[in-house]
Amino acid sequence: ALMWPIIQGIILVVGSLVFLGIADKFKRRTLLILGGTVMGLSFLLPTVIKLLMPNSSPLLIVVFLSIYVAAYSFTWAPLTWVIIGEVFPLAIRGRASGAASSANWVGSFAVGLLFPIMTASMPQDAVFAIFGVICLLGVW
User: Fold this and answer.
1) Per-residue DSSP letters for 80-99?
2) Domains of the chain
């Protein structure tokens, strides 16, 4: 548990460097679909594996969370800011970008607030399944 922030930080930095290398080689939409799909599956697959193999290793969650963080770090994390800067017309770009950034942080706050409540009130597998479905819905 104490090593997770270090592992996560390394994955995020490496993922951002990977993004720099692939940013212009793929369409933004392709990267968002790929990232959202991998992130969704990284939540759903441990749930399915745990249902099929109840005695599976707890390291399974760490591996799939690492995959999630890696996919996020080279797709959705950097692309969010790129797209916010490109999607709005110049006349409203400043205000609209501020509103979009605020919505992003409100969403992050909501997840941070709800996750402990959800894990305390329902099985961990259900929580992962819910977040996996949300990620896959984001792709749709």
Assistant:
1) HHHHHHHHS-TTTHHHHHHH
2) 4-139 (1.20.1250.20)
